[in-house]
Each structure stands twice: as C-alpha cells, then as structure tokens.
Design a protein that fits this description.
Elements lengths: L1 H23 L9 H7 L1 H11 L4 H10 L4 H12 L17 E6 L50 H5 L28 H10 L2 H12 L7 E17 L4 E19 L8 E10 L3 H13 L17 H7 L2 H9 L6 H27 L1
Antiparallel strand pairs: 1-2, 2-3, 3-4
Helix pairs in contact: 2-4, 3-4, 3-5, 4-5, 7-9, 8-9
InterPro entries: PhnI
Organism: Thalassovita aquimarina
Protein name: Carbon-phosphorus lyase complex subunit PhnI
Length: about 350
Amino acid sequence: MYVAVKGGEKAIDAAHAWLAEERRGDVNVPELSVEQIREQMTLAVNRVMAEGSLYDPDLAALAIKQSRGDLIEAIFLIRAYRTTLPRFGSTNPVDTEAMQCDRRISATFKDAPGGQILGPTFDYTHRLLDFKLAADGEAPEAPRRETQAGPVPHITDFLNKEGLIQTEADSDETPRDLTREPLELPADRALRLQSLTRGDEGFILGMAYSTQRGYARNHAFVGELRIGTCAVEMDIPELGFAVEIGEIELTECETVNQFAGSKSEPPQFTRGYGLVFGQTERKAISMALVDRALRWKEMGEDNMGAPAQDEEFVLYHADNIQATGFLEHIKLPHYVDFQSELELVRKMRAEAQAQTMPEAAE
C-alpha cells in the first residue's frame, strides 16, 4: 500500500507539470497577461466574479488564466480564495437608482422617463464572424456621451403611481449570508436571490427558459434592464456617517408579470428581480424570471408542478461548484466500492443461474 501511495504521488506531480505545460501552450506564441484577460474578456471575468461572490476583476482574470479558460474551475478558485479573506464590516445596500448607467432599456415603455440607452450590446449585431479580429485590426472608437445628470428612477416606479404593480415591502432585517451559512429550506426571498445570483448561468438560463415555454405561469416583460456603476458605502462608527469606499459595476433587471389576482390580492402586475456583478444581463434576466416563478406561494397561486417552481430542486442544483464536486468525485478511485458491487453482482448471477438450471433439466 505504501508503494502505491508513492507511485500515485509521482503520477500526480507529473500530471500537474503536464497541466502547467498545456496551460502555457506553444511557447512561441506570446503568453496572455492577466491585464489582457481583464480588459478583453470582460464578460468571462464578470461571470467568475458573480458566481465566485467576489468583486475583483484582477483576481477573476488570474483565475481564468490559471484554469485554462474553464470558468467553473476559475469560480472554484475564487471561492476558495474568498474563504481566506477577513471581513472588516458590511456595506450599506447599494442605491441602483443612482447608478451611472452605460445601458438602460425597457421592453414595456418606448419613451421611458430618463431615456433609453442601448450601450454596448450584441443585440443588434449580425452574428457573423469578424475576420478583421483575426488580423488584429484596430477597434473603432465609440462616440462619447455626456455623463448623466442626477439619479435615474426605476421605470416600474411609474406603474406604482397607478397602483398597478405589487409594492415591495421594505425590511430592516439583515438577510442571512449564504457565503457564510449553509442553505436551509424553506428559504426567504433574500436567500433565494443570493442563491440565484451565485448559481450557474446555464442552469438558471435553462430554468428561466422553461418558464417561458409554459412550465410555470410566468409570462414576463422586461420592465427595465440597467447596467452601470454604483457607489459602495460603509458606515464608519468613529465618524458617525457613511463614506464611499469604491464603485462596482452591476446589472439589474426587473421583470413585469401579469397576475390575475388571488383571494388576498387584486389583479395587478408583479415583479421578478435580478442583480448580478458586472455586465451580466443574460444572467440577470434569467434570475428575475426564476425569482418570479419561485414566488408562487406568497402570491397565493397554484403550483403548476413546474421545475422552476420547486424551491428545493432549483436552489440545491443551481450551484455549479457543489455540482462539480459531486460529479467529479466519481472519477476518483472507487476500487473498494466497485469490488464489493462486483462480488454482489456475481453472487446474484450465480443464484439466478442456480434457480433456472433445475427448470431447464425438467
């Protein structure tokens, strides 16, 4: 057994060395720098920050480089590093109404108060390969716009003036922190939203798509999608007031859903909500759709039996790091377990053959 362990260690060391060589690739090709990844692969960096629960573009870019572009592995690295960091305090809730918007659109109001800003988006591209990029062509310079003046109110607030959309109740209660406490069910909405924003983008997108195809009563409109930077503030006890400690880029989505009413609520519109680090609009929209589907109980709606309405199914399977760990453990040595099952199958086959042999003789 000792020899086997030593042999395994040598094989693992060799595998690590080979992995480093594969990560570097052809040494005649210039190596990607962390700065290049941070500046030119921003959507990948944003996803790693969002699902890793750590806003640091440099570390996210480093994780992408180390993981050879495997974003789930990069998220794993970021989460592992995050656990080593001390916590000095908690910031105040960000004010997204004061967001400096690079992109702000609404699918419900053409003439949205404050105006619509297309911003940097793939929405209107032709989805054709641009071979100029292969030739390292220079990117065209985008026109610069003036900085917005003052806060930009949320579009759904204008529906509130007519009382047509459900009012969200404010709460002074500090929500539980999913990064420091294990998930417990039933979960309140704050905990569900934390789980969704950390969840795997592909899984959340699949759940959201299922609601659009009829596997939940969830016909939604994008009331507003906004992307921009928000100030982060922290209360300093010695000063007696809050100070700004930095800025973060966020994507926020509010969906508007029709609601036929219930015994306790009149017909009105209801909301789904998504908030994610960085420019991550597909994830934010998906999150809002799934958030609304999971609210069926508090709305007094019937459970359609849809996967996206099943809190336990969605929240326990959304986390790609937990899923990866459980999935990948089956490729590690299970020699003893398999041998026991092998002997069991042999025994069952022998018993089955013994029962059939007398019948064949007759």
